[in-house]
Structure formats: C-alpha cells, structure tokens
Design brief:
By secondary structure, this protein is of the alpha/beta class. 46% of the residues lie in helices and 14% in strands. Strands 1-2-3-4-5-6-7-8 form an eight-stranded parallel beta sheet. Helix 9 links the parallel strand 6 and strand 7. Helix 11 packs across helix 12. The longest helix is centred in the first third of the chain and has 18 residues. It starts with a helix and ends with a helix. Bound molecules: nickel (II) ion. Nickel (II) ion (NI) binds next to loops.
Length: 305
C-alpha cells in the first residue's frame, strides 16, 4: 500500500485503539496491521499483539470508585493485553482491606497494604499487621511522605513511615514508597532505617531527579515508572529513567490516575502497561521485548510472585 494509505491506516488503528483503551497494535508496526484486519474481535487482536509478552502492573488501585462494577472487565482486558499480574494497592485500613478482598477474588491480582501520608493519623499497626499476613499480600505500601499543603505534620508522617518500614521488615515484605516533594527527608529516613530494607522496595511513580534515583538504588531499592514518564514535559523523569539500570525499574499504572500519553487525562487501567513499556524502550533505545522481560523479572523477584 502507498504511503498515504499506511498513514490513514495508522490513524484509523489508533482511533480504534483509543476507543478500546488498547494500543496493542503499535508494538509491531505493519505486520500488526495485517493481523488487525484478520482478527475478528478485540480479544483476538490483543492476544496476537502481545503473544509471548508477560508484563506486570506493580501499582494499581483496582478498588477505586472509577472501576466500580467493572473490576472483572478491567482485570480480563489486562490479561488479554499481556499484563499477567496486577498489584492493587491500599492507602489506609479500609482500602487495604478491599485490596486484599480483590486479590482473593482474582488469581492474577496481588495486594499491597499500608497507610500513606495523607492517612497517617489513622495508622493502626495491629490491624495492618493482621491483614498483611494474608497470602496474597506481597508488599507494605503505599507508605511514605508528602509535603504538599494540607497534609499531616511532617513528624507524624515520618513516625508512621518508619513504623511501617519496620513492620515490612518483620514480615519480610518489600515496601512501596509514595513520595511527593519530600525526597530529601524520604532518603534520610530510608538511610537511617537501612537495616530494615532487606526485603527491598520501590519508589512508586518516581518523580525525582536522576541523582536522587541513584541514592535510592544504592539502598537496594527500585524506581517504578508509569504514565508520567510518557508526558511531553517530563524531562527530569525521563533523564532519571534513562540513567537508571533497567534491572532496577518496575512498570506501573497507578490507575485510575496518570494515564500515559496519548491517553493523558483519561481513566488509566492496567491494559495500558504496554504503552508505558513501549515508551521506556524508546527512551532507553532498546527493544520492547527486553523491557518486558527484565521489568517482569524485577517484579517477580521483588514481590516474590
Ligand atoms: Ni497509588
């Protein structure tokens, strides 16, 4: 087909993909276009496009209101698109409980439980310890620090963060860290608790500098890369991602928030992980297959899935 036809077909495919919330065909260029026309439905297309690829969404909020009544569809669509595992995260007691309930419902969903900075005043260590012992719980998180307006006092945030780092150590679970405008203190807290970081952890939705990422990596931690790394104005994050060894990178959506470009502003979901993987491959100048293979191994090793 001529150049114009190819262009038109690409446009038609991406419009179609946008409608379905799926961008599978972008992986394999023209070869995929043929497959697209041969496929009878969305499921066939997803399966063909991602055959052999096994991805992990290491941070999602499947129990968010945005997915109410649609969890089965969302989890099913992710699996069709090559996302083999999803870790759904809590941020206080009730969301941690619903995250565990969701993980119990789906074989390929795991849970992360904890109190994040905004909810640190409600911290209940005993209750958290109890739910963290469920066999589908693979991490303590999200936990951490956020120094934006309206958040609880720093001292309280730090105290609850440290208590949860110690709980994770006691349970031999990795930590999932939420950090906003608090990278300096976050690093300091982690450094002085280094002996409690043996099970590892990750800086979820990493937004810090390349230099800071190196410090976290020196502590044995990972950085998690999501939709923000695809945004046009995200130069700082892109540099951090380029400089970070692939062996220390995890993929995540943080859905329903932070959908990757070109879905920015729309509802995010785990089936968009391939878009994030593709962007990471472009940033690093390596193949999507390598990104998928290494980040999935990283996730399996860290979360013991
Ligand atoms: Ni989150």
């Amino acid at each position: 087909m001529g150049d114009k036809n190819i262009k038109d077909t690409h446009k038609m495919l991406s419009d179609e993909a946008a409608k379905m919330g799926s961008v599978r065909m972008r992986f394999q260029g023209e070869e995929m276009i043929t497959e697209f026309f041969e496929a009878n439905n969305t499921e066939d297309m997803c399966r063909q496009a991602t055959s052999g690829l096994v991805l992990v969404d290491t941070h999602a909020h499947l129990t968010d209101k945005a997915f109410e009544g649609e969890e089965e569809i969302i989890v099913g669509r992710a699996a069709e698109c090559g996302v083999a595992f999803i870790i759904t995260s809590g941020y206080n007691l009730s969301s941690s409980q619903t995250a565990v309930a969701c993980a119990e419902k789906f074989d390929n969903v795991y849970a992360s439980v904890g109190f994040y900075p905004e909810n640190c005043m409600e911290f209940d260590c005993e209750a958290l310890k109890e739910i963290a012992q469920n066999e589908k719980v693979v991490a303590i998180g999200e936990i951490g620090l956020q120094y934006t307006e309206g958040m609880p006092p720093k001292e309280e945030q730090i105290e609850v963060f440290e208590k949860q780092i110690k709980l994770a150590h006691e349970l031999n679970l990795p930590i999932v860290i939420h950090c906003r405008e608090a990278y300096g203190d976050c690093l300091e807290v982690l450094k002085r608790n280094q002996q409690f970081l043996k099970a590892g952890g990750t800086l979820h939705c990493y937004c810090g500098s390349s230099e800071m990422a190196k410090e976290f990596i020196r502590l044995g931690l990972h950085i998690s890369v999501g939709g923000v790394s695809t945004f046009k104005n995200a130069d700082k994050i892109k540099k951090a991602v380029i400089d970070c060894p692939l062996e220390r990178i995890l993929l995540e959506t943080d859905c329903p928030y932070l959908a990757p470009h070109p879905f920015r502003g729309k509802r995010n979901e785990p089936s968009l992980i391939p878009t994030i993987a593709e962007n990471l491959a472009t940033l690093k100048g390596i193949s999507v297959e390598e990104v998928v293979s290494v980040t999935t191994q990283n996730a399996r090793r860290l979360f013991k899935i």
